[in-house]
Design goal:
mainly alpha; two-stranded antiparallel sheet; 4 helices; flat
């Protein structure tokens, strides 16, 4: 039990450390952009934080794509290919008890390792709100 708690704390500290590194890189980039192109620091940090947050959310999504395929588009046997795809998805879901374990097999599931990018974006936005507005 104590080993799991220590591992969780270590993971969270690493997560926070990497998020702060991302925040530092974003701040340095914002300093360069604001100096070089004569924009205000708060504008650059705001845009940068929002962009990093969106990229982090998109990077952290993973999961099962529900078997949709574009393999048969433009062919004469589109219906047969679509039927094969749907039948394969149905068989896979029957084998893995998809409906009983829906949260485990959901389409969108956040990966813990990519939350650092999300936290980096949040830190940049919070820093901008606290110190520039």
């Amino acid at each position: 039990m104590k080993v799991k708690i220590k591992k969780s704390i270590k993971k969270m500290l690493l997560l926070l450390f990497y998020s702060l590194i991302l925040f530092g890189l974003g701040y340095a980039l914002a300093l360069f952009i604001s100096y070089r192109f004569n924009y205000t620091m708060q504008d650059v940090l705001s845009y940068e934080g929002i962009i990093i947050l969106i990229i982090g959310v998109l990077m952290s999504m993973k999961g099962n794509p529900s078997g949709v395929s574009m393999r048969g588009i433009g062919q004469n046997n589109v219906n047969a290919v679509t039927y094969d795809n749907l039948e394969t998805t149905r068989i896979e879901r029957d084998i893995t008890d998809y409906h009983k374990n829906f949260m485990k097999h959901s389409v969108v599931e956040f990966a813990f390792s990519n939350i650092t990018v999300i936290l980096g974006g949040i830190f940049i936005i919070l820093f901008t709100l606290l110190f520039y507005y």
